Queue: 3 jobs
Job 1
Amino acid sequence: MTENEKLFKNFIESIEFDDTPESGHRDRLEDDLLTALSKQPRRESTMKTWRIIMKNRTIRFATAAIVLIAATLTIHHLGGSPDGTSVTFAQVMDQIREFRPYARTQTTRYHHTDKTVVRRFMILNRYQRREEFSDGMIRIFDYSKEPVGMLQLNPDTKRALWKTYPDQQTMPINTDTLDTLRRFEERPDIYKVEDRGVQEMDGHTTQCFQVPGENNVYTVWVDIETKLPIRIELEHPKFGQTLIMTEFDFDPIFDKTQFDRIPPEGYTLSEYISKDGGVSGQTSGFRPRVYTSTRLGTDGSKTVCRMLQPSIDRCRREYDNGQTEIYDYSQQPAKALMLDTKKKQAVLETYPGGNRKKINIELLRIIENAEATPELYKAEDRGIQPMDGHTTQCTYIPGMHNEILFTIWKDVETGLPVRIEQKRGRTLIMTDFEFDVAFDPNLFEMEAPEGYTLTEVTYPAKVVESTETHLIEGLRFLAKFLGGVFPKALEWPKIQQQMRTYMQENNVEEISPVQLKDLRAAIEPFNKYVGRLRSSPKSFDLHYIGDGVCLGEADTVILWYRPEGASSYRVIYGDLRVEDTAPEDLPK
Amino acid sequence: MDNNDETADGSQFIGRGSREPAAFVRLYRRHYDAVFRYCVHRLFERATAEDVTSEVFLKVVENIQRFRGDEPQFRNWLYKIATNAVNNHLRKSARRNRLLESAREQTNNRAADCGESPERLALLKEAMLSLKPRYQTIITLRFFEKLKLTEIAEVLGSRPGTVRSQMARALDKLRIRITSAQQEV
């Protein structure tokens, strides 16, 4: 195996995939396949039947009659009508099979908040579109030439933002609902278009079609005269959304300047390049800063810390309990100095292995991204608000999957944050921001001040490939830590909880620097190996029954799993010996 | 694919699969998990992977009468169909773009206190989707589905030597992409 292969193998082994097949889909598909299988023609026998029919005159006439009846029934069933008062789905498709410019109004209702967002889509061609929101904001997407990007216009503030995507090339972007309708026609084996009959809708006589899918339901109302969509509803419970598309206007005469990537006169333009930018880009863009971070725990605890950050890879954290932490990841090996100002104790931690690069979260980059692409982050404008003596613009950024949950107050004059809050269980509040601070380099010295007792701890290099030995040593460490008893479960949050409880019950007030190092060194590869076993439960068939078992109980099984490709299981006992065991000999 | 729970030779079901529903179901159940996993490892989306898995087996229903071969060849044939179905799906550039965009979004958000594994998954997703579909296929078959180079070559209708060199190029690209992204962590 080459070095690259090893690296990649290790990388993917550290990832938990949601790749366990779901029995519901498997069973539904099985039903569908059996139905499809029963409809499969058998060429030989079909030909034989046809020959028999054609040879016999009586059968020939009877067959013709049956074919005619079947054809009539099919037309009726699919919504077609010989007198032309109804519409077939194919006729609708004739109207939209080829791309045509159009506009529509789209109302999106989010089920979890019951909020609606209304916007007007204007589709010029496959590469350009304009979206007008009900609050006046406009977005113009232009992927017709490079650099591709999106111009956001705010008519109230006369501000324009041109966001470009240097990594992307020109490409069609307007493949949307109508394309989905086209797909319904292309794949009748997957999508079953159901005719819901003639209905009055928005002042039109319409034919209604419904396409139930596995995750959503499309309902399309088509004007009987024009055979064009009047209304489309998409119920998407999985995403918690209902989309309602109305006010369709096909082949409108668009003013091409409405799709211009240059903002109208009077707008202040700023540019944003959507790119991760690499380490150098981030480092060079990092503004030295100071702020206060207050953490309010769900248990009522409060921790206040002053954060001093001269660069992305160095910082000093001064806690209100007298602890100070200084991190320097700018050179190898990375180092951290922990100072207890009350006890005059210092711990210097060294991390060889080169895996520690960045210590400071690049908050501004997250905010910048969110503001440039509010739809992606579901950013909400909370208006102008007074905050800590400033006039601020408040924005709430929950993130696409509620993963960020930031509220930001930015000074309207400087555009810099005045306050940032994040409520996710505990509350994090960042205040008293100062930017472009000229720091005293002595604040980041990795040397213990005079009069301090120094303990030096060197962490082992990060384990690249975790093995069964790491699993065993992790279990040994945990059992020793927990007073000789194996943990109740293998999941790290549960283990942490058990460790906390154990420390409280046994009046263990703190973990020494060396213990902490040993804990981290044992747990990191342990978690990695457990994660790998748990990532594919069916393959590894992992079972843990160590709760309550004492370290050294040689007759008691605590864990078993099946290594990849093996027919026998690895069974681990309370004395941490491992035996290969046939499936029939496993504990019941 | 799943061959640990069945000791009988699956080849006997292949010939009967097009005629006997019970034989087809046996085959389907033996191979569903592997096809689904391959799709999800390529597409990184469960729902889409399920859709594509459905497409794959519908294709199997349509064509199984014409298939001639034993079970290992049947497995490779499934991977071939799945590869085409996944590539077709990704070829729709808007979809590919959406996948990339969501990967990029997840990568951008990694500073927001998320765990290591989701962050790495987002990195992997972005890096994999940036590769050519053929490279994606090789990497997925080799590292996730654990196929030998000769088996991958059969799926792709290529020579093992070619697959080896393409795999090396793909790994080079992945290493560069992942390493540069990791440096930002």
Job 2
Amino acid sequence: MNFLQTAALGAGLLAASTAFASVKVGQPAPDFVLTGADGKSYSLKDFAGKKVVLEWHNPECPFVKKFYSVGEMQRLQTSKTADGVVWLSINSGAAGKQGHFDAAGALSYLGKNKATPTAYLLDGNGQVGKSYGAKTTPHMYVIDPTGKIAYMGAIDSNSSADSDDIKGATNYVTTALSALAAGQAIERSSTQPYGCSVKY
Amino acid sequence: MRLALALMFFLMPTISSANPVRTDYLTSELLASVTSVAPGSRFEVALKLKHDPHWHTYWLNPGDTGLPTKIKWTLPQGFSAGELEFPAPERIAVGELVNFGYEGEIVLLTTISAPQDLAVGQSIDLIANASWLICLEECIPGKAQLKLTLNAAAQAEASAAAPLIAIARSKLPTRETVAARFAALEGGGYTLELQGAIDAKTQVFPLTTQLLHNAPPQSDPSASMHRFVFKQSDEFETLPASAEFLIVPPGARPYLVKVDTGAPPPPSTGAAPLKAPPLQQGQASLGLLTALALALLGGLILNLMPCVFPVLSLKALSFANLQGGERRAAVIDGLAYTAGVVLSFVALAGVLLALRAAGQAIGWGFQLQTPVINGALAYLFFAMGLSLVGAVSFGSSIMGVGQTLTEGHGARAAFFTGVLACVVASPCTAPFMGSALGYAVTQPAPLALLVFATLGFGLALPMLALSLLPRLSALLPRPGAWMVVFKQVLAFPLFLTAIWLIWVVGRQGSVDSMSWLLIGAVALAFALWLKDVSPGGGLLRVTRASAIATALLVAAACLWAVTGVIAPQAQAQTPGASEAYSAARLQTLRQEKTPVLINMTADWCLTCKVNERLALDSDRFRSVLAQNRVVYMKGDWTHYDAEITKFLAQYGRNGVPLYVYFPASGEPQVLPQVLTPQLIADTLGAAP
């Protein structure tokens, strides 16, 4: 590679690599503006005053399929959005990597699986994922009505890829949302997430 | 031929293993160390995993993502299986994420116990339901059911796989109790300090999850306990009571270490948490003026310290030389010296404050906690001593910046003498200085720097007075031949100071590091001597120059070698005399209502050593301890120690010595910095 190519590669890498941040429970959730699969623009600010759940998604990851194949994630989405919670599924997969979606692909997936998030957001350049420090799919964040992070980490307490393990597990997202609704402190506010790595 | 084959078949030991199972990118196989199981015996079962190239499975702590390999056993009645044991993993980076896992071929072991009432001749089926996650970039959960059939016999019989299993066992980590310390750093992050054969290539993996960032820690080999610095995990929730680490030394067996984190006990246990000592509030209300007064006094007293005195006598000597018409020069010299001292103290304090702001837990005297700096100072004093005694002289000096700078006359020389005085004086926290410095670091930077500047001013004051007041300098004896003798005599305190510094390096390292320094000192002396040898012809000139350069390089290399020498094990102590300080242990003792005496000391702190010699190392002291059933804890602050720094800060201190007595019940008492045996006896003997 000649000098110009090396320089270009270096510059490209520099531009592409956004810093991998990490957020903490109790801190304000980083704002973002993303386009949904429906073509509309969504910003976290739009949902101020509501409880928001962020679900990092990769349709081909066995751990995501664990929940979608038995309809569990869909059930959660339907029941929580009916309660007034905003559920945002986010795909931070880079183009060409496993599980990346374009708008049409996402809509088709949602229809086929009868998934009902408030919106399915496309984070193709991974910036939002990195600003949250999203490591796995699924990686769950619960944001309270004041915009602060109330829970972040695994979706439940049984880290496996087996759908049979859902029944015996504590669902941390459900627990966190109930605690918020009752005005109580959340016991497990930060857990080790499990899943496939996000394909930035 | 057929007979031979049949014989071979007959004699071949039966290999007790399931057929290997092939799943996505992995071949798994179950092997046992025996073919026959004896009643009441234990044997090993191995899960051999052969990964396709570049694919990996995970360790017990998988890291940022991933799942550890697991086995669910189905065993005949009476049999029990132990934990699945893993060999040392590697760090596997996936973009920004760090995982711990394995590529290639690995063996995981489980110890199985057979019941005593095992019927001989019975067939034994061991079924392992193994599950794992195998990844390259994508991940595929995998599982296999592997079966082994053994038989029960009166005696166990080794299988063909036994050697493979023995090798695998020898690579599995053992559990060791080594001296280890875990502490939180101000500004975030944690340190793990370990004793033992640790070097820069040793890897450390956290087993405890949700505590530490999985990236490799920073490694600091210069302390007597090797120190690793970790960042906090992104998933950190609360500090667990203990943390476990896997230590992997290159070419040696890995081992697991468990260390107390010093986390406070959960409130539900009912134990009263340790109260912050009330002295904290007392220190804060010290007041700026009081702190400044104490700093000034402390600086004055510093003049008498044996490490400072020889340096200053040189200057006093030069003032003795300047009589009559050179009065004005003397005033300038005095002011330059004062400026040197004050600015150096302020600069050192600035570095200290900046480092603390950046998250390092260090205290005053930190510059003498590195062997290299001590070694360099030893060189300096040695060279200065040589010059004073007349062994070498400095004409147009090409080396030893410190030499010419402090040896000559003029404002520049005076300034650098001041700098030198500051560097050597700082670690000896004299009485009065402790509180002032403690106050200083709790204040905003400008006030803190003012306190340190006043300290410097106190140190400079006698010299300044000499230069400004003609009457005082008239008290100095008139110049004469005696001055040459006096100059030579002064060399000896300098040699003694050099020896003191070499001794500190010896304590920080070992006899080997002392020897390196001594070799380097000889090389330095050689270079200095060679400099004065008359050059002669052109070729000899070149030879001489290169010889000088080589000698200096040797001296520098010896200084460098000092850092490479591993420190010895904890110094041999009189059995039962003292314990090493640990915050967790102190807490336990206080909860048990045991009286504790804490001595925070350091090898480079003369006040500490004097107190120990006079009051804390005697038989009388030991009998007072035994009589009152007091536990004596010694904190060695010779090197950086975050836990001790935290303890010092709790009492508003920034340096050593610090003596605190915790009675069985009641508030802790801070003892004065000058101890006497009677004082100790009275304090420890007082009614609880």
Job 3
Amino acid sequence: MSLSEQLKKDFSTLTLALMAVAIVLNIVVGQVVSTLKLPVFLDSIGTMLAALLAGPWVGGLTGLLTNLIWGLISDPVAAAFAPVAMVIGIVAGLCAKYGLFKTWWLAALSGVIVAVALSIVAIPVRVYMFGGITGSGADFITAYLLATGRDLFGSVIITVISSNLLDKIVTALLAWGVVKGLPRRFSARFSRAEKVISVN
Amino acid sequence: MGVSGDHKDTARRASSDAQLTRSLYIPGSSWLHRLHPLTKLSYAASTALIVFTAPGGGWSAAVLLAASLLLGMLNGLGRPIWSAFLRLAALGGMLLAVHSLFNPANVTPLVTWGVLTVYREGFSYALLVLTRLAAALSASLLLVFSVHPADLMLALAQAGLPPGAIYLFGSPLLLLPQMQARAEAVLAAQRARGLETEGNLLQRMLALFPTIAPLIYSALMEVEDRAIALEMRAFRSTHRKTSLRRLDDARWQKVFRWAMWIAALGVMLIGIWWRLNG
């Protein structure tokens, strides 16, 4: 199948509706989790679900648009991290494509892969645009590492990975569990979900 | 959302919009509000590009910051821009403190209190980053405060963005309040059944799945209905659609938009050349 045919198949009306819902899920689940005061964000659950159900392109675009819309409605700073959200969707979709979401422990491994991959984009944005500081609690880790004599880049690498690792593992496990638990009537509409559900 | 009821029609439109969508838009009829959305979008984008790529420190950022603040104040947006800046204050304070004290490039001491020494290199670096951020933020605030999201969508559609992309931008804005209300309902229902949502960390962790699973599943179950509803309204039709909204554009704005993009790309190229040879 050529790339344009694949894209046409990936972006059906059904997929567009899925993406719109996934974008809203990112924002709303993120808000619910912050009311529960948990040490995770879960603001990329929709992105990962879209990636598992409809592939890396759909996942990546869902992430990108989530942060752009976020920037438009509540916090322009979020728009600067749109490329990071895009990487989360693309990498989660690729992991699913190559069978890395088949079992719960493979899903957790995918969470680790996503956390490492997003850091490659998040670190330059954080260092170059924000001087390593983004106004969140994680800044204290950066400050501590700088105070112990590390350079800015090294400090930010440790901060970004440590603050994202747990979140992305929990998100990947939840996304895996949700897709596994979907009724067959629904998941059969998304051919890519087969890679997550089927045992072999 | 603060609605100034000086104009009845504006007030009514604003209150119905506030129920339908949640956005940062502030209703008004100033010169800035009447500009074409793409003019303001181009201004925000080219400001961000210039601020982060221009050669020679933070002068361009300081000039653009002053220009955006002046534009905001002249068009009645001074107060909301200021309150958005206050939210940036935490970031700014942290940035100044961390770099003045701990930046590895620090050599020249400015002030010393006990064990803490404020250094010149870190302080000026933090100031540069903060000026850039404030300039990019104020330009994007001019856009989000003065353009209704529906007008931005319409402008992008008229500029040739495909309907699928417009749907992906517009639909979440309408869906968000509905889904937030549902999230609150789920949380209340699970609490009524005795779910502990305010206990210790373990209890709150255990509350996570029962609160978000109903939300996620019900949202996913609706996807198919939404797709069918779209197809029934000829979503994939390539015919030109008529909009209820009208956007005013002017020749000078078109020229100005091109000029801003050319200037921004020029500055970016000079900035790259300067960094490679400087």
